[in-house]
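I would like you to sit down with the record closing this message with an eye to the fold:
=====
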Amino acid sequence: MAVKVGFIGTGGISRPHRKHLKNMDDVEVVAMCDLEEDRVAEAAEEWNATVYTDYKTMLENEEMDALYVCIPPFAHQEQEIMAAEKGIALFVEKPVSVTMEKAREVDAAIRKNNVVSCVGFQGRYLDIIAQTKDLLKDRPVGLAMGYWMGGMPQVPWWRRKEMSGGQAVEQTIHVTDMARYLFGEVKSVYAAGRTGLMTDVPDYNIEDSSAATLVFENGLAATIFSACFLSGGRGRGGIEIFTKDMNIEYRERRSITIIQNGNSELVEVQNDYWQDMDNDFIDAVRKGDDSALKTTYADAVKTQEVVMAVNRSIETGEVVQISDM
């Protein structure tokens, strides 16, 4: 029997998921919803899916097994809660919200209704990250530096902190989540940021750059840098990891470089990691069990706590304990 899937949000981030679902057997997209009628109509054509511009109407009218929620951070309202209450499995794109209150409300609904959930931290599915975890298994990490640096996306909502959460929440969250995945849980955060560089960008109130030091429960201190003022293709993303006998340089979704005993080995990504994530999600939906997924909603809430702590520390100038989030 085919797994019936719906979409809320048919913009750019939904396209890879739609492509991957096409590659699977016994999957049918039955309904799609977007505020932009022309966009959702075009997306629905390849599936002959029913078109909606109101998510409540779609969830009330349609029978589905799984729902992809691919919307901007500020747009999360009751979509996930309504779906969970109907027993619909959820794939939610990151970040899951711009407030901890909403994230926890959704998490509670998912737990209460025991529905499968997954969040779009696709980097966890990289073959090079599996290799990195294996290399670090018996090697305590002494220091780590992460970064997500580039230009400012040309969408108005991204520039407003109340709508995107700022770069730490909307983009650098990928690096923060990877740090959690590799190094364990975060205990506290201290962060600082600067503004005022982007004088040619109207109506923005996010940081141009920030540096956040994360102290992990295992004692590791790692600093994660964010910057959205760069131009001319100078951006970079990844994590540099230092142990007693080995350095690992992870380049975001591209490669790792392993440096040991004066030798350097470049290992490039080989697997279709995003397809693998969608495959795992649909498989979990079929089984009604998300325990094998690398990234669930409950786990994503922990990453959300860290990036929201970064924002709080920037605002207050104080160390923020994750337990206070």
In short: The longest strand covers residues 186-194. The radius of gyration is 20 Å. DSSP finds eleven helices and 15 strands in the chain. The chain has a mean pLDDT of 98.
